[in-house]
């Protein structure tokens, strides 16, 4: 098997699974309980929080655990909008955001909020000047992803941070789900960023766990009320085993980040060179200012899901666009925002790489594509 869908989810490290199992079976106390078992669980919870904060260069009290990126995005978009309602009802998100952000913004529009979508250029990068033109006195939130999940474009977070530097009344949210451990933290977690969201299973943790960074002093309306966990910001008994596993996964992935960037960049370059030799191929992901692990391309005249299942016949696993929208059969929304024609956008497939891949697998994928290319000649 050759797994090239790591942007959808990664295989948990064996050490992470071991940590999860040990905590789940041996530390079953509720962290909110006052007895010894609860105190034991609470110490692990706070140690995990401190470790994650240290790895990100932030304060432990700025880390709040969630069920993943989707919950974090929903929480920030809705929670900040309602918390700052008295200051304005205008929010801006980029036109290439993950559905968790975009759908949350569209829902806010049904509740009386005014929503604008910042456009991108033909390469998939946010046009900072056009974003600036959308800012208004009643703007309360700007949300931009760090790394686009469909083509891997690294967004100009520093330029946007500079734009918002003298606008302290506007909260700045960054969706860092595809960025954490893939590119330098300094590229997206700037001093101007107020909120950032992350998901464990994107860096070899377990599914169903994530965390949100909330800068000290920034207010947000809780999405969940009840027991008062997470400093009253996110009530529900914490997934202690998943949280401990997340801290372990993040430490391991951060230790391997330099190797990850070097190796995946090399594999991506070989893929680009090999695919570029074919007629009717359009490559949507570049290398400069693009994440090293994401490569999206299309074969003219062949739908993405056809290519996906053709690769699957050879035990090679890729994705059409993002995992969250591929089952719906939708073309890559990012490509449409870039001005790509719908017919070409529906041909897109995404290969996403990891340290666990090797050059032999990449060569095998290219050899397989050659066979698929010949098989689809009549269709094209």
TrEMBL record:
Its EC number is 2.8.1.7. The keyword Endoplasmic reticulum does not apply. Its cofactor is pyridoxal 5'-phosphate. Residues 2-364 form the Aminotransferase class V domain. It is an enzyme of class 2 (transferase). The keyword Magnesium does not apply. One of its GO terms (molecular function) is cysteine desulfurase activity. Pfam families: Aminotran_5. Keywords: Aminotransferase, Pyridoxal phosphate, Transferase. This is Aminotransferase V. It comes from Streptococcus acidominimus.
